[in-house]
Each structure stands twice: as structure tokens, then as C-alpha cells.
């Protein structure tokens, strides 16, 4: 995205808003689907942040 750097970081921020909710749910009851979703979301956010930071 040329000239849309803010949009990349906006995507990281909006995706990251679910992490606290997922952490709360995992702390309430530890199940493999919840841990898997949390892990995948952290991985996706990390990838998006790295891509936004590179350019």
C-alpha cells in the first residue's frame, strides 16, 4: 500500500484489541481451541507488525 502506512498500523491495532479478551477467556478455562486461537492471532499480529515496520 503506497502512502497508506497508517492503514497497516490501524489493522494491527484493531486486530490486537481482541487479545485481552482471548487472554481472559484462556485464564478462565484452559482449552486447546482457545489457546490455538490466541496463538494464531498473536502470530498474525506479529506478522502484520513486522510487515508494517519494514516499509
Task: Characterise the protein shown here.
The protein has 55 residues and is mainly α. It has a domain at 30-55. It contains three helices and no strands. Helix 1 (5-16) runs antiparallel to helix 3 (32-54) and helix 2 (19-28) runs antiparallel to helix 3. The radius of gyration is 13 Å and the shape is elongated. The mean pLDDT is 90.
What's a concise summary of this model?
With 55 residues, the chain is mostly helical. The chain has helices at 5-16, 19-28, 32-54.
Q: Tally the helices: what do you get?
A: 3
Rounded to an integer in angstroms, the radius of gyration calculated over CA atoms is 13 Å
pLDDT average, as an integer?
A: 90
Helices and strands, in N-to-C order?
HHH
Structural class: mainly alpha
Shape: elongated
Q: How many strand segments?
A: 0
Gap between N and C termini: 10 Å
Low-confidence stretches: none
Which bin fits the share of residues in helices? over 70%
Major sheet size, sense and barrel closure: none
Q: Would you spell out the secondary-structure blueprint of this structure?
A:
Elements: H1 5-16, H2 19-28, H3 32-54
Helix pairs in contact: 1-3, 2-3
Amino acid at each position: 500500500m503506497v502512502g497508506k502506512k497508517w492503514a497497516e498500523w490501524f489493522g494491527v491495532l484493531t486486530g490486537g484489541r481482541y487479545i485481552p479478551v482471548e487472554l481472559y477467556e484462556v485464564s478462565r478455562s484452559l482449552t486447546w481451541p482457545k489457546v490455538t486461537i490466541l496463538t494464531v492471532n498473536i502470530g498474525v499480529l506479529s506478522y502484520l507488525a513486522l510487515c508494517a515496520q519494514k516499509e
